[in-house]
Amino acid sequence: PASEYDYDVLVIGAGPGGYVAAIRAAQLGMKVACVEKRKTLGGTCLNVGCIPSKALLYASEQYEAARHQFEKLGVVVKNVSVDLKKMQEHKQSVVEANVNGIEFLFKKNKVTRIEGEATIVAAGKVSVNGQEISARSIIIATGSETAGLPGIEIDEKQVVSSTGALALSEIPRHMVVIGGGVIGVELGSVWKRLGARVTVVEYFDRLVPGFDQEISSTLARLLIKQGFELKLSHKVSKIDKMNGQLKIAIEAAQGGNQETLEADVVLMAVGRRPVTAGLGLDKIGVELDERGRIKTDAQFQTNIPGIYAIGDVIAGPMLAHKAEEDGVAAIEFIAGKKPHVDYNLVPGVVYTEPEVAMVGKTEEVLKKENVAYTVGKFPFSANGRARAMGKTDGFVKILADKHTNRILGVHMIGPNCSEMIAEAVLAMAFGASAEDIALTCHAHPTLSEAVKEAALATQNQAIHM
Ligand code: FAD
């Protein structure tokens, strides 16, 4: 009987993992509450992550286009300038609309919202604001936070995390970005477009590690063309503050070559770490892995029965849509259904200009796994729509099994790739061969024809190349 507990499910954290889990639980008829310590719902993603970053990326992209691309299209605009305050207001209104949207969805679905910080007392028992609440199942969806570097303090004014970088009230003269991952290149792009000099220091020899090598080297080349300065294979050893300026000592990753950069803002973007402190996990014995993430089984249950974990706080790609998939699946397991989440089919996107998107395996991984594959590639410079838009940089690359032509990975860099990757994900989810895409009629003239042509190219049958 439900009366034994206050709730069937209690979710800790209202990010994309937690709020989606709560709504799905309500849909399935469970009595559900969601505890969130922030004043607003939506977690990192809606408040200080995906949504505000895309608002600033879009606005800054329009500015960049007005300054450098409109003229080529015969559109004359004079005296283009930035009103940063207004741009920040736009960002804030987008965030507000989104977080209020979740509040509306909670009400609509009768999810009880509890404001406060939750601690788990025991299986089935959570304490919030000194009050004990019982629930048959507890879902930990506490997400992640910015990871730092030892000896470097983040003050959110000059040395900022992504949160501070989204809220700057002045355009920096020189921003040094530590870490050339997705967040580093996206937020670096915002400030570069708005006029800052931007230098990215990355420990590895490439940007966006994890993406296909050919894509990341193309991205690096295009960012350099936009004026980015890249210090690949370098690490930051220390940062000193002098008369309001930051002096950033960097050296070659393998030691040797040292230099000092001067900047007014440093963005720390070396990665994110799971949020588990304060939850009381050690007391009740919930196991963590070697990277501090909560260990779960294939049904998202921790080693303590009745306690589940999803999203950034467990293993797998730290992405909002992955957290959502986890959230739905965890609830469906609890409800006795048989959901399935395939982490190999979680798309990854970098919202730079041009955009980067991928799904499945990279060439490097296929080589390591000794898989025989063919490559089909098609450049946007041969696509009519891309030419019409004046956005011909980049290409689509499809990796297919050499014997069966089954799609193993799709990698793209170019205009609107964040939207175009959905076709590839869908195809792979259905176990399609590249030929299945090639045999599918694509509207002309669209950018997505480049996907069809790349699919044809896996069997050397591209028409327009
Ligand atoms: P979170 O969104 O981190 O939510 C966890 C919530 O739990 C937080 O609101 C926190 O306050 C709350 N909480 C923590 N502890 C407690 C407690 N004890 N009691 C109560 N509440 C608690 N991902 C994408 O897919 N696409 C993007 O474009 C993208 N852009 C990003 C840009 C930036 C700048 C950043 C920082 C991240 C970005 N991400 C993006 C990553 C994305 O934000 C995360 O993967 C996603 O938010 C993870 O969801 P989650 O539900 O696991 O956790």
TrEMBL record:
Q: Which residues bind NAD(+)?
A: G179, G180, G181, V182, I183, G184, V185, E186, E202, G271
What positions constitute the catalytic site? H444 (proton acceptor)
Q: Cofactor note, please? A: Binds 1 FAD per subunit.
GO cellular component terms listed in the entry, alphabetical order:
cytoplasm
Q: Which cysteines are joined by disulfide bonds?
A: C45-C50
GO: which molecular function terms?
Answer: dihydrolipoyl dehydrogenase (NADH) activity; flavin adenine dinucleotide binding
List its EC numbers.
Answer: 1.8.1.4
* Positions bound to FAD: K54, T142, G143, S144, D312, M318, L319, A320, H321
Q: Which reaction does it catalyse?
A: N(6)-[(R)-dihydrolipoyl]-L-lysyl-[protein] + NAD(+) = N(6)-[(R)-lipoyl]-L-lysyl-[protein] + NADH + H(+)
What is the superkingdom listed in this entry's lineage? Bacteria
Which co-factor is required?
(R)-lipoate; FAD
Q: Which family does it belong to?
A: Belongs to the class-I pyridine nucleotide-disulfide oxidoreductase family.
Q: Look up the further comments and give them.
A: The active site is a redox-active disulfide bond.
Protein name per its UniProtKB record: Dihydrolipoyl dehydrogenase
What broad taxonomic lineage does this protein's source fall under?
Bacteria, Pseudomonadati, Pseudomonadota, Alphaproteobacteria, Acetobacterales
